[in-house]
Design goal:
Shape of chain B: globular
Number of strands of chain B: 4
Structural class of chain B: alpha/beta
Structural class of chain A: alpha/beta
CATH architecture of chain B: 3-Layer(aba) Sandwich
Strand content of chain B: 5-15%
CATH topology of chain B: Rossmann fold
Number of domains of chain B: 1
Strand content of chain A: 5-15%
Oligomer: heterodimer
Helix content of chain B: 55-70%
Largest interface: A-B, 33 and 31 residues
Helix content of chain A: 40-55%
Distance between the termini of chain A: 24 Å
Number of domains of chain A: 1
Largest sheet of chain B: 4 strands, parallel
Strand order of the largest sheet of chain B: 2-1-3-4
Order of helices and strands of chain A: EHEHHEHEHH
Shape of chain A: globular
Chain lengths: ~140, ~140
């Protein structure tokens, strides 16, 4: 289970396994929590949250959460909402991809250079949401 | 024993740990090894979000789960909704057996890829065993 100080923003991707957009949501999350803002962000296992793990539920209730969904089923958003989490923002990779339809994403396992580029675009959108949250909450 | 001609392979996809990424890669390697229309997978959060079709599948078909850690979220999720996995593989256990660990959550690295290959072979063997049992029953 992820350790989280109260100021850290949680980013929870859907990690859907049937579509590359799930992998994009996951990769974009790692770009932010590992490379761009490791001290200000964290992630948690969505599966652990949705099976009702108490510590993970507490985590999403105590921290602002950005859900990154891979498709219209919105599993990450729904998982946070069902756990009474502090859903601060939801991004949908499919929706964002519509503006970058020229990018050729390779596969679920290997996004390829253009899929990774799409993941960086999603990471940029996550950073914008983080700025908004920090401005609104004065943190 | 099941006479089903279809087997489900379900990964936890745990976002917090590199082993979660291994579970995803393993699923696709199993698909690649078998090249069969007799195996299917599903997004675990989608299953938990209440998609009736996915839930009915685990009542009527044998499943194999692949877990990143000892929390065994995929197995627990399936059992929550009446499923009974035929086999469960835990990546951290196989890491101990083989001494192989993935490099990071984004890139498995050479050892992580080797680990994923070993696990995918184990699961492929299990799926083939289940399918051959079903063939015998259906004869």
């Amino acid at each position: 289970m992820a350790e989280n100080s109260e100021n850290k923003i949680l980013i929870i991707p859907c990690s859907g396994i049937g579509k590359p957009s799930g992998t994009i949501s996951r990769t974009a999350t790692y770009y932010v929590v590992e490379d761009l803002l490791p001290k200000k962000t964290n992630t948690a296992c969505l599966a652990l949250l949705v099976i009702g793990d108490e510590k993970t539920r507490q985590l999403v209730q105590q921290s602002p959460v950005i859900a990154i969904d891979g498709c219209p089923a919105k599993c990450a958003t729904k998982g946070v909402q069902a756990s009474n989490g502090q859903l601060a923002a939801s991004l949908n990779v499919m929706q964002l991809y519509r503006e970058h339809i020229d990018l050729e994403v390779k596969s679920v396992v290997d996004l390829g250079p253009e899929g990774e580029k799409m993941a960086r675009i999603v990471a940029g959108k996550i950073l914008e949401e983080i700025k908004k949250i920090r401005r609104e909450r004065n943190v | 024993m099941s006479k089903s001609k279809l087997v489900g392979v379900v990964a936890c996809s745990g976002e917090e740990i590199p082993e979660g990424t291994v579970t995803r890669v393993v699923v696709w390697k199993v698909f690649g090894r078998l090249m069969s229309s007799k195996i299917v997978t599903t997004c675990l959060p989608l299953f938990l979000a209440g998609q009736q079709q996915e839930r009915e599948f685990v009542w009527t078909h044998p499943t194999v789960t692949i877990e990143g850690c000892e929390k065994r979220c995929a197995e627990r999720a399936l059992r929550m909704f009446g499923g009974d996995p035929r086999a469960t593989f835990v990546v951290t256990d196989i890491e101990k057996e083989t001494g192989l660990t993935p490099r990071s959550r984004i890139y498995l690295g050479e050892k992580g890829e080797k680990l994923a290959n070993i696990i995918s072979q184990k699961i492929t063997n299990e799926v083939e065993k289940i399918l051959s049992e079903a063939d015998r029953i259906n004869e």
